[in-house]
Amino acid sequence: MLNIGRFNELTVLRQLPRGLQLDGGSHGEILLPKQYTSEDMKVGDTVKVFIYRDSEDRLIATTQTPLAMVGDFAYLNVVDESPVGAFLDMGLQRDILVPFSEQNNRLEKGRKVLVRIYLDDSDRLTASTKLDTFLYDTDETDAYKTADEVNIVVGAKTDLGIKVIVDGTYWGLIYHSDVFQPLNRGDKLKAYVKRVREDKKIEIIIQKPGFARVEGLAGDVLDQLRSEGGFIPLSDKSAPDDIKKKFRCSKNSYKQAIGTLYKQRLIRIEKDGIYLEA
User: Does this chain's domain 149-205 share its CATH topology with 211-276?
Assistant: First the structure.
């Protein structure tokens, strides 16, 4: 089965002056233009190609890697405007359309925008800024529990924190008080479920909660101690902002981390900071 808007492994049927004809199954033969072929591609070989429709709505293959595929959320540049909508750079020969009907606000050339990639009724790659159409606000299926690892895409900032897309399916929120590193719209990274509230909304945190995260932070503190000659001027009495600036964590997490190191007799804690034990 051919997956339009994604990578496929297709067999080379014929070699032509303009490129290679690939076996698209029920979709017929699909051209891989000559500029995307290599000398080692022979008839009978299987090649990995991305499939989409060209400007004449013909299926076309490419070995280029797009900036996003069908089902993805991506932060893309608006490169043109037209009577039917705005076009975004997909990293392919053809740009992707955001129809006016799929724009929350009018898109202008030069902006970047977070979109969801999908196929329209004619199997053409299309983008939408109406993210709520594709996401659930709540975890009604009880899919998540505290400390579960998730993949997130960073969305917009709110008064409470930063909205994030969780596993391409749900909206989640990282509270401002839980942000210990720069987060920009469109960033993709690993994160963890802080908790699922009674109203089924998902709270997210970048650092893994609980003892496993303390171990990780303790290791970071130990590495930093060694690289700075065995002393860091931050104790359990230091200001939260100083700790956050240095280790991108809360004061409570830092205290747990240095407590772990102290119990293992790796450091000593003084008023002026922590010292690496010999």
Answer: no
